[in-house]
Amino acid sequence: MKSIVDDITRAWNELDPELIVRHLSPDFRYDSQWVFDYLTYDGYVEYIRGKFKTLRERGIPIEAVTVEDPHLGGRMTKIVQRLDDKENVCYYRIKMENGLVVKGDLCMF
After folding, report:
1. pLDDT by residue (tens digit) across 53-100?
2. Would you say 38 and 29 are in contact if contact means Cβ atoms under 8 Å apart?
């Protein structure tokens, strides 16, 4: 699992969605505290590709690092976005089954 979390961290640093997509189960589900409804595999793939493209085009700096998860154990990706004087921090957690990511959660803690 650590190598997959490291790939997710690398994906955010390089803005390369394929580093995430290649690990997703066809049954993948994504939830975010900032999105009203969940996304399934197809919706998430479209979303993350578009999000990374927008971040690249706008030159928005992202810094991601793999960290310990103090709430659930294991590892997760800490994502920091800096805009002007603001720093937005969020955490990307995953759940795995049979070697694939079946759940992704983006939250502020």
Report:
1. 999 999 999 999 999 999 888 999 999 998 888 999 999 999 999 999
2. yes
Residue 101 bridge partners (DSSP)? 24, 96
Contact 83, 62 (CB under 8 A): no
Q: What is the pLDDT of residues 24-59, one digit of tens each?
A: 999 999 999 988 899 999 999 999 999 999 999 999
Rounded to two decimals, the pTM is 0.93
Candidates 74, 104, 107; CA nearest to 11 is 104
* Integer Cα distance of 108 and 13 in angstroms: 18
CA angle at residue 21 from 10 to 102, to 5 degrees? 105
